[in-house]
Fold this protein.
Amino acid sequence: MKITIFGTGYVGLVTGTCLADAGHEVLCMDVDENKIARLKDGEIPIFEPGLESMVKSNVAGGRLDFTTDPVAAVGFGQLQFIAVGTPPDEDGSADLQYVLSVADTIGRHMTDYKVIVDKSTVPVGTADRVSQTVAAALEGRGESIEFDVCSNPEFLKEGAAIKDFTHGARIIVGTESERVMRLMRECYAPYNRHHEKMMFMDVRAAELTKYAANAMLATKISFMNEIANLAERLGADVEQVRRGIGSDPRIGYSFIYPGCGYGGSCFPKDVQALAHTATEVDYQPELLNAVEAVNFRQKKTLYTKLAQAFDGDLKGRTIALWGLAFKPNTDDMRDAPSRTLMEALWEAGATVQAFDPEAMKECRRIYGERDDLVLVADRVQAVKGADALVICTEWKDFRIVDFDWLKRQLSTPVIVDGRNLFDPQAAKEAGLMYYGVGRGDSL
Ligand code: UGA
């Protein structure tokens, strides 16, 4: 099939590349000329394991191409995926200007039947607005050409995007049209071979499914963080509680890891957007608001624990950070807990000495050159001469540590383990002052 993808961000690039890899002919369009030029050379703008080689091989194989030309893009695919960004507006609602601008572009240039596929995470009702926008653009040209709009939300995780796309749990398509069902089946056939993963439903149900899935996962995390905070005050170890409740198949082990709060480009934005949608239909989203509030508080706990360890005075201290990205295997720092911590430390007059295997460039891009931000080449240099160590991201490289060595590096042997990587007992036995998340008497 011939497929066009609008937007070469995470979702667009992974979708386009995986569909090309499955044998389709894919043209990805983006307004960013520099990005498209780099992609044509096989250079990808994001860090995602396995993606670069997949882009290169599909470009070389002639199945994947990139363009900035909207006319060529609209003319190319029978399926037109919209995978552009939906950044949050100031009130938390999703800003649809880019989605609707693509819809307008499609309406202006289409000359035959198209299926417009909403891939971006968009509020319930967006497919109707996309439809109206395309229809208005067609009317402006005095044309009446048939088209359909369907919702096909994406459930990929950064760092595991290719596997999530190619081996996802489900492929959801919101449409009532038999023709669209047939075309979407054909599109996903290469990834729907072993068992039936396609789920067809109403457009609005598909749109809400995406938000409900992310809100549910965010709820699990905030719930667990709340239990961790309680455990801390009650002298219990939340890691034991986690295993205890995870063993119940109704609860399950995934997404119940307590920590320093969820970040990234999805959970914070989607929980807020769904809460905003709720208020628009006169519903008070008590639970969603609480999930967000608990997370906001959780992101501050790294600083609170440090401040406690230093009797509230962090001025002139040097704090080592291991991990800047919002989670491992990505260079993404959007809404990362490390940012809340760094900003609080700077406010308190401390210096940050940080290392992350992938996000150093991103950190420099966000914060620029400043005296109180020292980015070092590895985890060993990060702790050299530092007063305390904070773990913000659970990268594999951080999991094994010689505590005796660590104690010798830190001038005040304080370790704040925002991801519960270490055994509190072992850390304490080595003479470290260990602060985990919800680890019994670690307060
Ligand atoms: C999330 C969802 O997991 C995907 O299914 C979804 O498609 C995606 O959002 C999206 O909407 O595009 P992602 O944001 O890439 O994916 O990352 P996750 O692995 O879900 O992690 C999100 C945050 O939750 C991270 O900050 C992570 O550290 C935190 N987390 C996760 C916890 O604190 N505890 C856990 O048990 C799990």
Q: What stands out?
A: Residues 2-201 form a domain with the Rossmann fold fold (CATH 3.40.50.720). The chain has two domains: 2-201, 298-442. Residues 122 and 207 are 7 Å apart (CA to CA). The chain has a mean pLDDT of 96.
